């Protein structure tokens, strides 16, 4: 009996600690990813570049970029077939390295004559997709991606899409009240609408975001850069101002508290220095909900009033330039390398076998061009350049 008990005891020990099995290390090298994610409570950074995001979170901005790219390529091809030689006009004609004025007219730019005399209202829906040149396109799209991606991730594509389209249309309406006889595009208006939305999101959720100074600095930088760009020909700054106001008001109406996503313990957002944690995000949401009905109602009423006023002024054919002589300097600053003149340009034309000489009757400038077989629209472009 004693021998049998000793055999059973030995067998039990062998089963519990079999030979060849190494003891587990004191700390496992495999870490469960689910334990790495925590739900941050309290404040979160506005720019969460390192947050775990799904690719589908930015489908709206990706689609808008593709549409703008298609419109820009189409404009470039129109310019090539109109001039027969170049995709972009020289800087002396277009300081933004883009198409000619006649090409912009063909693809849908806004002019006073198109709206008042011809009533081509379809241009309100085409003009927000046009760019004045490759410089304008590069800066505008880069800023739109930078701002739009963060807004879409925080507030969702539906709300940002509605704000984007309404701001673009409202900017074109404001442009129609100030536009003169030079062609202008309003694609920057949608970007300014997103900037207004970003500002409203910061104001509305001021206690939710951390590093607000960095976010405001980025907003002001993008705003100032694109406003200065609007002082060049073919870009309308009044559309930018109108779209910014629209985005600000619509942001107060449509934006709720931003979606707070999971973040790794060892990772931080781009502007997450000094993140403060309060008691609970839920309490912050409940506190922010107290002012939503009043704020949203006032913002919605103001937007409807402004939109209705612009529509009425458009139908009445009101030109605010008749009442504001200095307003034109907000849209275009005269300089020796380009012209902001919107008056009728008349040139004396002299042709021989291989050259064409244009003399501006307004200032006496003369230019000789090594070609003669061009359209009347192209002659008007060259006449406007020397006048």
TrEMBL record:
<keyword id="KW-1133">Transmembrane helix</keyword>
<feature type="domain" description="Peptidase S54 rhomboid">
    <location>
        <begin position="122"/>
        <end position="255"/>
    </location>
</feature>
<feature type="transmembrane region" description="Helical">
    <location>
        <begin position="161"/>
        <end position="179"/>
    </location>
</feature>
<dbReference type="InterPro" id="IPR035952">
    <property type="entry name" value="Rhomboid-like_sf"/>
</dbReference>
<dbReference type="GO" id="GO:0004252">
    <property type="term" value="F:serine-type endopeptidase activity"/>
</dbReference>
<feature type="transmembrane region" description="Helical">
    <location>
        <begin position="129"/>
        <end position="149"/>
    </location>
</feature>
<feature type="transmembrane region" description="Helical">
    <location>
        <begin position="294"/>
        <end position="318"/>
    </location>
</feature>
<keyword id="KW-0378">Hydrolase</keyword>
<dbReference type="GO" id="GO:0016020">
    <property type="term" value="C:membrane"/>
</dbReference>
<feature type="transmembrane region" description="Helical">
    <location>
        <begin position="185"/>
        <end position="203"/>
    </location>
</feature>
<keyword id="KW-0645">Protease</keyword>
<feature type="transmembrane region" description="Helical">
    <location>
        <begin position="58"/>
        <end position="81"/>
    </location>
</feature>
<keyword id="KW-0472">Membrane</keyword>
<keyword id="KW-0720">Serine protease</keyword>
<keyword id="KW-0812">Transmembrane</keyword>
<protein>
    <recommendedName>
        <fullName>RHOMBOID-like protein</fullName>
        <ecNumber>3.4.21.105</ecNumber>
    </recommendedName>
</protein>
<comment type="similarity">
    <text>Belongs to the peptidase S54 family.</text>
</comment>
<dbReference type="GO" id="GO:0006508">
    <property type="term" value="P:proteolysis"/>
</dbReference>
<comment type="function">
    <text>Serine protease involved in intramembrane proteolysis.</text>
</comment>
<dbReference type="Pfam" id="PF01694">
    <property type="entry name" value="Rhomboid"/>
</dbReference>
<feature type="transmembrane region" description="Helical">
    <location>
        <begin position="215"/>
        <end position="235"/>
    </location>
</feature>
<dbReference type="InterPro" id="IPR002610">
    <property type="entry name" value="Peptidase_S54_rhomboid-like"/>
</dbReference>
<dbReference type="InterPro" id="IPR022764">
    <property type="entry name" value="Peptidase_S54_rhomboid_dom"/>
</dbReference>
<feature type="transmembrane region" description="Helical">
    <location>
        <begin position="241"/>
        <end position="257"/>
    </location>
</feature>
